[in-house]
Amino acid sequence: MSASPNHSGKATESYDVVVVGAGFAGMYMLHKLRGQGFSVRVYEQGDGVGGTWYWNRYPGARCDVESMQYSYSFSDELQQEWDWSERYAPQPEILKYANHVADRFNLRPDIQFSTRVERAAFNETTNLWSVTLSDGKTVTAKFVVLATGCLSNARMPEIRGLAGFKGKVYHTGHWPHETVDFTGQRVGVIGTGSSGIQSVPVIAEQASHLTVFQRTANFSIPAHNAVLTEEERQAFRAKYPEVRHFARVESRNGIYAEVPDRGALDDGDNERRSKYEARWNHGGLTFMSVYNNLALDKIANDTAADFVREKIAEIVADPETARLLQPNNHPIGTKRICIDTEYFSTFNRPNVTLVDIKSNPIEEITTNAVRIGVKDYEVDALVLATGFDAMTGSVAKIDISGRHGQTLNQKWAEGPRTYLGLMSEGFPNLFVITGPGSPSVLSNMMVSIEQHVDWITDCVTHMRERHLAAMEATKDAEDKWVAHVNEVADSTLYPQANSWYMGANVPGKPRIFMPYIGGVGPYRQICDDVAAKGYEGFVMTGAEQPRKVAAS
Ligand code: NAP
């Protein structure tokens, strides 16, 4: 850090890089940049590290990528020494891991907690960002890195009367730190995405009665979570070089798994069914990689969707409840597939009711009930599992202005525009980690985070070595990338679903397929090629102006 006098004569803290957010992206960004000798300050609005795992403390929250893979790979010592207790770690354990990393790499001294970044403005004369914080302070930095997370801006539903409800209201994405005990209570859960599907079975065990309000049924595959034995951990650790290499370079989604070599229609009914059965019994996200054309061919996709619908009918005793739980308005996998523990069988419990709010929407929430038509479903507590303003929501909350005073919100009014999901034209020296236009949420986030952090670090080091002042995506490169992202998405079934990938869950949000679906391995290759060609598609300008250093 350095300090230089500002116009009022007071010293302004100045950093090479300001990082926004201390989740897994921000923590690794700090570690990596600091290792290269950059001065870095991280601002985090929570009072601890962990990002999404800091906020999402709802009952049943756990990872849907196996923990031996949903973990940092940048330090072999770290991955060899950390003991994951279960195949899919629960949220408290993931948060403990984040805290362990913060301590092990001594990150905390460079993180300012309980501080939001309110504004960031680029000064075209100095080529510096001026960053205004919620504590009223302004700091300057040559680079700003948004490590704000893709799913961290919890979205409250707009339901009449919600504010007047007299019981407790919880959002899964903003869960209290203290234990919430629903014992003896009548609980209503609104929303049946991953968060609802994970929390429903756990809440059902506590509540006197649980009513699940479902607007859209979702496909869910059993996790078959289990305790990891020491032998299993050791076996996995021994093959880490192969696992990590595959996830980074060869995979499409950052997950080590068998690569399918045939399409669903290449097998006969019996063979196909037995493959689905085997994947169902194995559990987890790899269900969707049993064949190579499930995301591309609707008829192929239907075979997998029908299999899951049949499973739901087998598990759920009441035929009408089973029918309602069977998804029927989107191809399987085009909304993020859910991974559950006993979700469908929970509806066989006598204390659980499913209410279809697609055909009969919630009219209002009264002081003590959810009103649908003439019926009041009385509840003592409400759990809103209603999701996030994904991918752009957290960025949009910061007032970011680039060249000519244009704000990022103005530029992205019709949907996010980036080059490689890393930078947006008109906003020099501003990086986004796992931003829209990169594989991000379609991948194991850890793999994508590490790739972006490594790329950004190489890039700013390249600039430092050449004393370059500013770097910016060109309009032409950005336009071509946006077109490519759309073209690849349009060649799949994904745009057929009203998903948060499309921004469809937020009223008024432009419908654009936000993540890049071209695959983690190919995407990495593209980014590496861009760097190898001297950062093709970016302009790097000017010799750096000497910054006055008043104190250090
Ligand atoms: P989500 O997938 O967006 O699901 C939100 C649910 O709330 C949907 O069922 C939605 O219905 C419903 N909803 C929203 N607004 C509503 C309203 N006004 N009235 C009634 N229902 C409403 O959100 P999420 O479950 O929090 O999951 C988001 C993403 O976070 C996941 O897809 C996943 O990527 C990630 N996540 C991961 C894990 C994990 O790793 N294990 C766990 C949780 C979340 P519609 O579908 O009809 O809009």
Characterization of the model:
The chain is of the alpha/beta class and 552 residues long. It is 31% helix and 18% strand. The strands form 5 sheets. Strands 1, 2, 3, 4, 5, 6, 7, 18 and 19 form a 9-stranded mixed β-sheet that branches. Strands 8-17-9-10-13 form a 5-stranded parallel β-sheet, with helices on one face. A 3-stranded antiparallel β-sheet has the order 14-15-16, with no helix packed on it. Strand 15 (369-372) and strand 16 (375-378) form a beta hairpin. Helix 9 runs antiparallel to helix 10. The radius of gyration is 24 Å and the shape is globular. It starts with a strand and ends in a 9-residue tail after the last strand. 46% of the residues are buried. The structure holds NADP nicotinamide-adenine-dinucleotide phosphate. NADP nicotinamide-adenine-dinucleotide phosphate (NAP) binds next to helix 5.
Q: What ligands does this structure carry? A: NADP nicotinamide-adenine-dinucleotide phosphate
The N- to C-terminal Cα distance equals 6 Å
Q: How many alpha or pi helices? A: 16
Mean pLDDT: 95
Low-confidence stretches: 547-552
Measured as a percent range, the helix fraction is: 25-40%
Radius of gyration: 24 Å
- Main structural class: alpha/beta
Count of individual beta strands: 21
Report the principal-axis shape: globular
Q: DSSP strand (E) fraction?
A: 15-25%
The biggest beta sheet is recorded as: 9 strands, mixed
